[in-house]
Amino acid sequence: MAGLPGAARSRSASPGSPPGLDGSFLLSPLGGLMGAQAVLGLLVWSLIAATTYHLHAAYGWVMFVSLFFWILTLLFFVTYLLQLHQKFYMIPWPLVLMIYNAVATVLYITAFVTCAAAVQPTSWRQWDYNRRAAASFFACVTMITYAVSTFFSFRAWKGLGSNAATSQVTEHA
């Protein structure tokens, strides 16, 4: 699990011990990106929710994507922050995180394009236009953060040049 927070440290948490906070996770690229994704995702769905999105079917998709990945990102963030991923060492976390980030990137691309295409500058409600345009911008930025996370997750999964299969065996033996 090279590249992930806590990978270089010895496993201090035993399976029966309570979870502890991992302060280094917040300073890692993965932690910073997850924090940014949580804030940006919150902005996307709250801006859309503040409009009359139910009148336009396209915004239903944007709401689904942004809320779904916001909740999952918060779950992953808490999992890594509390070092719960070390309790479930049999799960290939770098691979799971890479697939999650790749799927989030692709679906956020569709949400961004849908949101941007559905913004109507001649809207009769000016505040809806402003919020939808801002949601489109933040959906694009969120998509970029998920793409960067996919890159870092891929590097962690590949082990930065080492054999990922042997590194997991030696860590947990």
From TrEMBL:
It is found in: Apical cell membrane; Myelin membrane. It comes from the Eukaryota. GO terms for cellular component: apical plasma membrane; myelin sheath. It is a multi-pass membrane protein. Pfam families: MARVEL. One of its GO terms (biological process) is myelination. The chain crosses the membrane at residues 25-48, 60-83, 95-121, 133-154. Belongs to the MAL family. This is Plasmolipin. The lineage of its organism: Eukaryota, Metazoa, Chordata, Craniata, Vertebrata. The gene is Pllp.
